[in-house]
Amino acid sequence: MSATAEVLALQETLYTSKNPTRRWLHCTRRDWVIDALRRTKREGMRRAAEIGPGSGVYLPVLAELYDEVVATDIDEAFLDRARELARAHPNIRALADDVTASSLPDAHLDLLLCSEVVEHIRDSQTALREMRRVLRPGGVLVLSTPLKYSPLEQASKIAFLPGVVHVVRKIYGEPVLKQGHVNLMTEREVRAQLAGAGFRVVEHHKSGFYLPLVAEFGRDAAQSLLARMERRLRNGPLSGLLWTQYYVAVAEG
Fold this sequence. Notes:
- By secondary structure, the protein is an alpha/beta fold.
- It has a single domain, classed as Vaccinia Virus protein VP39 (Rossmann fold, 3-Layer(aba) Sandwich), CATH 3.40.50.
- It is 43% helix and 21% strand.
- It is built from ten helices and seven strands.
- The chain has helices spanning 3-14, 20-40, 59-65, 76-86, 124-134, 151-159, 164-172, 187-197, 214-217, 219-233; strands at residues 47-51, 68-73, 92-96, 109-115, 135-146, 199-207, 244-251.
- A seven-stranded mixed β-sheet has the order 3-2-1-4-5-7-6, sandwiched between helices.
- Helix 5 links the parallel strand 4 (109-115) and strand 5 (135-146).
- Helix 5 (124-134) packs across helix 8 (187-197).
């Protein structure tokens, strides 16, 4: 199985994971993004795109909301997945495209979704400037990316040390792959890059709390405990320990 096929297989199992905490972390993120897509849709918004659609969990929602949807990626395997979804949703178009030098025209889109992508791009500032360029003034960016100091991101560095990953895979009993994150950012860094690219943040949220071993062995009780801890941390000084940060931002004119 190719590396990309392994990633697709992983993404498709996360929302049904046998581990309650793993399932909760990913379903919470998915549900927040879908809700953001629905509530930001306005009359007259016709064109949308998703950068890095992965397994395509958001593409059917975008196809329901928008007349035209473009799925962009640099990996043909992910584009093939978008083409599969286009059979049921013919308003989806797959496009090989590099977000740091996009071929999309200026001011072409009303909405752009970029979920769990910028952490894979070293030059995220250039990517965000390109996102602003292809959005019309007043267009909407929905963005999510991990927080730099979340325990989950830190634990992931340990999980893939020699010998450790085999144990982790046995514990989960399902795919566990390197995340390939090369550009983890704090909230301050993301906000600065959004402002520098010409975006105004209108909504911000954080979700997901993880503790090693508790998540792996605590089952449903652990998930419930971590959800309570998430709610306590979200609006406090330690909110940077949560896993995912979300933004709804408007392209300024």
